[in-house]
Amino acid sequence: MRTERNLTRLDRVFARLDREPERPAHIDVPRMSRHRVALIAGGLAFYLAIVWLVVDTSWLVRLDWQVMFFRPYQQWAEIHWFVDYYVVLGQRGPTAVMVAAWLGWRSWRQHTLRPLLTLGAVLLLLNITVGAAKLGMGRLGPHYATTIGANEMGLGGDIFPSGHTANAVVTWGILAYLASTPRARRWLSAVSAVTSLGVGLATVYLGTHWLSDVILGWVAGLLVLLALPWCEPLIARTETAVFDLRDRWRARRSTPEAVKPVEVPMPLKPRTPASQNEPAARSARTPAYLAPGPHTTRSERTPVTPAGPRRPPHPDRVARGTTSAARPLTGG
Predict the structure, then answer these.
(1) What are the two backbone dihedrals, phi and then psi, of residue 38, each rounded to the nearest 5 degrees?
(2) pLDDT tens readout for residues 197-223
(3) Does residue 216 contact residue 51 with C-beta atoms inside 8 Å?
(4) Which of 13, 32, 91, 215 is buried most deeply by CB count within 10 Å?
(5) DSSP summary character for residue 144
(6) Measured over all CA atoms, what is the biggest interatomic distance in the chain, rounded to whole angstroms?
(7) Please, what is the angle between helix 163-177 and helix 182-206, to 10°?
(8) 136-149 burial by CB neighbour count: b if 16+ within 10 A, else e?
């Protein structure tokens, strides 16, 4: 009787992960529409307005100082430990690793490089735009302020706009940008907005950023996401080039090398064992110490000297094998 093993929930999850879906051709790539262009124009105007309010030391700078003197980290000290951990969601290194791991798995499952290439493009845009603004404006943070009520601009700082806030907007917003369905895009957009809002407020709570830094960071991250469709043609060409390079490399590995002509081997005689070949070799040649002619045994030969036999003939010598006659006995 055959019995089947009951699949557990973990087995069903791994069975689902083992599936190999085809490359997602049905996913709509965001295009640069008029609505998006209008949002970019409005975002740029708001961005420049915030920068002008800070440079002009307006009411926004006075609000920054009021929030700093309020010292939220002392007013709500009981949540300080939670905010210390929560603000990590805006740091570049940990968030990039987490999101890259998820998008890398999606790239492998869907047989496409678009998620990883899009992440690389958006992080490059973020580093260029936000990094240049930070270094260009050089604003000092609340903990390093030198003059009360001043905007602290051009003093060598690097906190305006807030990098944590802009990074949170871009890193978590890219998940919504790459969502496969409209419903997933809406949910992920809401989650990324709440996460980035919390990260910005966490930096204000800890006193590492002014409130205006956080507002400008939100706008900067949003502008990067809105401008990302302009990079889609370059992302598509890069993906095509990478896949073409991979196909050429595979074809080069699978093509056998040119076979060199092999020379016809010379026929070789079968080798006979030494024990069978040795007597024939010995009989084929005459020993050097023997005189030419038929070979006789030692018993049939008579020792010969240049003067004749070594032993003189004896009249009484009888050849071997013959019967000798009775010898006369001589008496004395």
Answers:
(1) -65, -40
(2) 999 999 999 999 999 999 999 999 999
(3) yes
(4) 215
(5) G
(6) 175
(7) 170
(8) ebebbbbeebeeee
DSSP H or E run through 71: none
Q: What is the DSSP letter of 4?
A: P
Q: Identify the residue with better confidence: 67 or 270.
A: 67
Cβ partners under 8 Å of residue 162, min gap 6: 200, 203, 209, 213, 214, 216, 217
Report how far residue 222's alpha carbon sits from residue 232's, in angstroms, rounded to the nearest whole number: 17
Among candidate residues 117, 324, 125, the one with its CA nearest the CA of residue 222: 125
**What residue type is 105 in one-letter code?**
W
Pairing of strands 304-305, 308-309: antiparallel
State the Cα–Cα distance between residues 53 and 60, nearest whole angstrom.
6
The answer to whether the beta carbons of residues 102 and 114 sit under 8 Å apart is no
Peptide bond just before 161 cis, omega within 30 deg:
yes
Q: Give the pair of three-digit tokens for residue 257.
A: 């090398």
| Rounded CA separation 169/95 (Å) | 11
Alpha-carbon torsion 177, 179, 181, 187, what sign? negative
Token pair listed for 216? 């400008």
125, 239 Cβ separation under 8 angstroms: no
Identify the sign of the CA torsion 25, 28, 33, 38.
negative
Separation between Cα atoms, residue 51 and residue 235, nearest integer Å: 32
Q: How sure is the predictor about 322, in pLDDT bands with cuts at 50, 70 and 90?
A: low
Check: pTM over 0.70? Answer yes or no.
no
Alpha carbon 182 to its chain centroid, in Å, reads 33
* Residue showing tokens 């030692």: 298
Place of tokens 């295009």: 31
- 193 token code pair: 């907005």
What span, in angstroms and rounded, lies between the C-alpha atoms of 134 and 167?
A: 13
